[in-house]
Design brief:
Elements (H helix, E strand, L loop, with lengths): L2 E5 L5 E6 H7 L2 E13 L2 E9 L10 E2 L2 E4 L11 H7 L9 E12 L2 E13 L14 E8 H9 L5 E8 L5 E8 L9 H14 L2
Parallel strand pairs: 3-8
Antiparallel strand pairs: 1-2, 3-4, 3-6, 4-5, 4-9, 7-8, 9-10, 10-11
Length: 205
């Protein structure tokens, strides 16, 4: 059974626990988040993954490009494996911009998530056909305009236009252009989205 390092809220290390125990008790643990940003024809976009409907948590919702838990025997840098595993993109740490640790808390019935999220940014335009999706984790990739997403969350916009691909159970891919509202994204806390988007704004080249 997977074990993760556990911490106090101030990031003081206190030991290890299983993933199930961590989410039942609401223990602080470390995660790796990587956002991919592309500039296309002078406009900035974020890549969002579409979580597989097989996922226990937030199935079928749009989320961080690639993210995952750090195991008890891993360093932060080991989290880069998530990009290869989930979306088939191989990069080195030197290609990423470190945006810092952003705390994240979310409570649902029977599930408490308290993360010290190590957040990174990769600035690269990647054609959709270059992505290899881990079927049990990810079922699509979408490009969402950065500023429009910001306004969706913190402005008056009700929808954001986006384009992407969705992979069917048989492996066939379909290209999709659609409008999305906030309900189509993982409901991370407003403070987490705000801190993350502001960090991306500051950290981009």
């Amino acid at each position: 059974m997977e074990e993760l390092k556990i911490f106090k809220k101030d990031r003081t290390y206190i030991g290890t626990a299983t993933r199930d125990e961590i989410h039942i008790k609401g223990l602080w643990h470390e995660t790796f988040h990587c956002w991919i940003m592309a500039e296309i024809e002078g406009k900035e976009y974020l890549y969002f993954q579409l979580r597989s409907k097989r996922k226990k948590d937030y199935p079928g919702l749009l989320d961080i490009t690639a993210a995952g838990h750090l195991l008890s025997n891993e360093n932060v840098e080991d989290g880069i494996r998530e990009l290869k595993e989930e979306i088939g993109i191989k990069v080195t740490m030197d290609e990423l911009t470190y945006l810092g640790v952003i705390p994240y808390e979310k409570e649902l019935e029977g599930f408490i998530d308290r993360e010290h999220a190590h957040v990174y940014l990769l600035q690269r335009e990647i054609p959709f056909e270059y992505f290899t999706l881990q079927a049990e984790e990810v079922s699509g990739i979408f490009l969402v305009p950065f500023e429009e997403f910001y306004q969706l969350w913190f402005g008056n916009d009700k929808h954001v236009a986006m384009v992407g691909i969705k992979e069917k159970e048989n492996g066939e891919r379909v290209r999709i252009t659609m409008k999305a509202d906030k309900d189509m994204f993982v409901p991370h806390n407003d403070s987490f989205y705000k801190d993350t988007l502001d960090a991306i704004k500051s950290g981009r080249n």
